[in-house]
Amino acid sequence: MERYNFGFLDEEAKREIRRKILKAVAIPGYQVPFASREVPLLKGWGTGGLQITLSLIGKEDILKAIDQGCDYSLNAMNIKRFVRAVTGVETTTDTRRATLIQTRHRIPEEELREDQILIFQVPYPEPLRWVKASERETRRMHAEADYGLMWLSLYEDMVRYKEVTIGARYPVLVNRRYIMDPSPIPRWDVPKLHMSKHLNLFGAGREKKIYAVPPHTSVEPLEFEDYPFRVEDFSGKACALCGSSESFLDEIVEDGGRRTYVCSDTDYCTRRRQSGATVKS
Amino acid sequence: MELLLKVESLTKVFGRGCEQCLSLTGKDGNRCPICGSIVACADVSFELHRGEWLGILGESGSGKSTLLRLLNLELEPTKGRMLVNLEPYTGLDLLSISPYSRRLIRQELFGIVYQNPIHGLRMEVSAGGNVAERLILMGERRVEKIRERVLALFRRLELPEDRMDELPSSFSGGMQQRLQIAKAIVNNPPILLLDEFTTGLDPSVQAGVLELLKEIMFELGISAIVVSHDIGVINFMTHRVLVMNRGRVVEHGLTDQILEDPQDPYTQTLVHSKL
Asked: Using CA atoms in the order B120, B123, B125, B127, what is the torsion angle rounded to 10 degrees?
């Protein structure tokens, strides 16, 4: 692997991405265009997140990668293996030990610290794409904070269905200025972005955009006062492995149609079991 | 009367533009013979007072619609200033500010009704949603309150309440214009801009919409700029009038006076050509 530069990307590319990250941090929620490079990963499989990871990672860093909360799924395993190969850094599944966490569609259950960076893989960075197809128009709308159409789509949902019909990718207002797509995290994770202690970086490789939610920044889901934003409801359900009723649960339909629930965050679940948590029966 | 809006030498040249554009146009046409640019508005200045209804009369191509779009801050002017006398914007030139502030100020100060409902309404959004948009943008976040206000406007404008959640494309022409009016006045802006808003309606509907609108404007004490080629509309709706031809104001004064005793040859033709 000596044929490759540390972190695979050349130093110029890393510097460009770091400059774009700085701009993104300076303007919370604003999508900064960047020169997305080719990396040995298919576009749509986390190339944006990977480029951010590769441009930030240093020899002392410890990397964690998750795919919908899981440390062991194909996407997460391959990303970790690749980064190990081109940097030699240590990887971990332990949320508490990681300095960089690359994630596909989840925020760990464990609250992150100031010294940790969470890097999101983003398929569709443009929250206004729901309501406007033209990129030129959506850019103008962001520049002028012309968010009437976005609000109207929520209003129409209220009128028709008495609630917002968006599941994952719930649009948020960042720092009271830009509407942002938080990537397809469940609603459950949206409140964790608000005033978080850690830095959140979002990379969309195919769409060539980087954006950020810096620490201690307000992130508010778009909502009406009389129809407040709600997270997924797991009341009466608990993890079949660790018994947790405070985590985001994945539904598993077994043969015969029986439904069980397990923690989506595998590290959280494993640690609970190691410390003696069991299923109450 | 108290001054509300002061417009100074508002000019719009479509095209490259050159030094001679203004001096070489106006008499025979408004295309500059040197650079080929179109002078749509040249040095238009006027004042609008609180509660005043100002008419802009002219035939097609006289620049009146361009003028209205400039006033609505939709178009970037080539030259000119637009000052409001209204706190907290007193003394601010609305044409010198960023597009971001311009949008905020525009939605607070102006309501506009277009000739073609396609320009004024979002056809893919429900009728009620169209009216609600401004309220939401101004910070109202209670669906109940929004719907109360929309409903009140539907009643006032004699729109069918039970069709509030239907798409405006299913509405008749007269209803679409009344819906545009509801949308324009939902947040009580101080200035209403009307662009040929009765053209395309049949005469009986036209009379009804005009009558209703006049009543509402009177109730609200709103100021208005009424653009029309229809002398009847100008006569019925305005106190004062500017007559435009080839992008220039050729005559201005009290509506009665101008229509009774026009001085400018162009105005004379216009007034006498009425059937």
From this structure: 70
Q: Which of A46, A49, A203, A269 does the annotation list as catalytic?
A: A269
pLDDT-derived band at B274 (thresholds 50, 70, 90) equals low
Once rounded to an integer, what is the mean pLDDT over residues A112-140?
96
Provide the CATH number for the domain around residue A78. Answer: 3.40.50.11310
pLDDT digits 0-9 by tens, A239-264: 999 999 999 999 999 888 999 999 99
With an 8 Å Cβ cutoff, is B165 touching chain A? yes
Range of the domain at A275: 233-281
Interface test with B, best of A224, A227, A229 (most B CBs within 10 A): A224
Number of domains in chain B: 1
Residues A237 and A210 in one domain: no
What integer pLDDT is reported at residue B141 of this predicted model? 94
Confidence at A280, pLDDT banded by 50, 70, 90: low
Mean pLDDT across chain B, nearest whole number? 92
Supply the pLDDT for residue B60. Answer: 86
Same domain, A64 and A192: yes
Q: Name, in order, each residue with C-beta under 8 angstroms of B122's C-beta and a sequence gap of 6 or more.
A: A149, A152, B129, B130, B133, B168
Q: Is A242 a catalytic residue?
A: yes
Question: Is there a single domain that holds both residue A122 and residue A247?
Answer: no
Nearest CA in chain B to A159: B165
Tally of domains in chain A: 2
Q: Is A269 noted as a catalytic residue in this protein?
A: yes
| Predicted complex ipTM | 0.86
In a domain, A143, yes or no: no
Q: How far is the CA of B100 from the CAs of A151, B93, B109, in angstroms?
A: 18, 14, 15
Q: What is the CATH number of the domain that holds B83?
A: 3.40.50.300
Nearest to B71 by CA among B222, A137, B179, B63: B63
Res B17: pLDDT: 85
**A117 and A214 share one domain:** yes
Identify the band that residue B189 occupies on the pLDDT scale cut at 50, 70 and 90.
very high
Residue A136 lies in a domain: no
Q: What is the pTM of this model?
A: 0.90
Domain co-membership, A103 together with A66: yes
Residue the block writes with tokens 């009558």: B211
CB-nearest to B103 from A146, A224, A226 is A146
* Annotated active-site residue in A7, A48, A49, A263: A263
Is there a catalytic annotation at residue A70? no
Strands B53-57 vs B38-49: parallel, antiparallel or unpaired: unpaired
Query: How far is Cα B170 from Cα B153, in angstroms, rounded to an integer?
Result: 19
Q: Which domain holds residue B222?
A: 3-274
Query: Does A141 reside within a domain?
Result: no
DSSP class of residue A97? T
Of B136, B141, B146, the CB nearest to A148: B136
Same domain for A238 and A111?
no
Name the one residue in this structure whose structure tokens are 């106190």. B239
Where do we find the tokens 């405006």?
B168
d(CA B77, CA B66): 10
Q: Are residues A176 and A266 in the same domain?
A: no
A152 touches chain B (CB under 8 A): yes
In this predicted model, what pLDDT tens digit does every residue of A76-93 receive, in sequence order?
Answer: 999 999 999 999 999 999
